[in-house]
Design goal:
Keywords: Methyltransferase, Transferase. InterPro entries: ASHA1/2-like_C, START-like_dom_sf. By secondary structure, this protein is α+β, with helices and mostly antiparallel strands. Helix content is about 30%, strand content about 40%. The chain has three helices and seven strands, in the order βααββββββα. The protein has a seven-stranded antiparallel β-sheet. The longest helix has 26 residues. The radius of gyration is 15 Å and the shape is globular. About 20% of the residues are buried.
Length: about 150
C-alpha cells in the first residue's frame, strides 16, 4: 500500500467532452453514480446521495480546482460509508483528474493522495476499496464519453 492511488485511461473522446463529463455536476453524477445537489464551483462544497452495496449514504466533497480543460480536483473522506460514523474530524484525501489531448482522444489520469494521514484503523481498507473503485469509475467514464 502507498499514500496514493494512480490510474490512467485512454479515452476515444475529445478533451472537451471528457472535461464536461468531469466538471458538469449532472454528467459527473451520471457516470460516478451519485445524485449531486448543485453545480460544482471551485472552493465550494459539493453534496449528494450515493448508493453503495445497496446502502444509501451522503457523498461530500470540496471542489478545489476547475482549470478547464486540463485539471479538476476535489477532496473527500475516502470510503466513508459507515452509516453511524462521523468522518468530519478525519483528514480528507485529494482527488486530481488530469486531462491531456491525444491524437485519438484524451489521456485521463486520476490520482488520489493522502491515505497516510488517515486513522490507522481505516487507512488500509480505504486504500483497497478506492483502488478498486477508481478502476470501476474509469470504466464508467469511458462508457459515458465513448458513446
Amino acid at each position: 500500500m502507498t499514500d496514493r492511488i494512480e490510474k490512467t485511461i485512454e479515452l476515444k473522446a475529445p478533451i472537451e467532452r471528457v472535461w464536461r463529463a468531469l466538471s458538469d455536476y449532472r454528467e459527473f453524477g451520471t457516470w460516478f453514480r451519485v445524485e449531486i445537489e448543485a453545480p460544482f464551483e471551485a472552493g465550494k462544497a459539493a453534496r449528494g446521495k450515493m448508493n453503495f452495496s445497496g446502502r444509501e449514504f451522503i457523498w461530500n466533497a470540496v471542489i478545489k480546482r476547475m482549470d478547464a480543460p486540463e485539471h479538476f480536483a476535489f477532496t473527500w473522506h475516502p470510503y466513508a460509508v459507515g452509516p453511524d460514523r462521523d468522518y468530519s474530524g478525519e483528514p480528507q484525501t485529494l482527488i486530481e483528474f488530469t486531462l491531456k489531448a491525444t491524437d485519438t482522444g484524451t489521456h485521463l489520469t486520476v490520482v488520489e493522495s493522502g491515505f497516510d494521514s488517515l486513522p490507522e484503523g481505516r487507512r488500509e481498507e480505504a486504500w483497497r476499496m478506492n483502488d478498486g473503485g477508481w478502476t470501476q469509475q474509469l470504466g464508467n467514464i469511458r462508457d459515458h464519453v465513448e458513446v
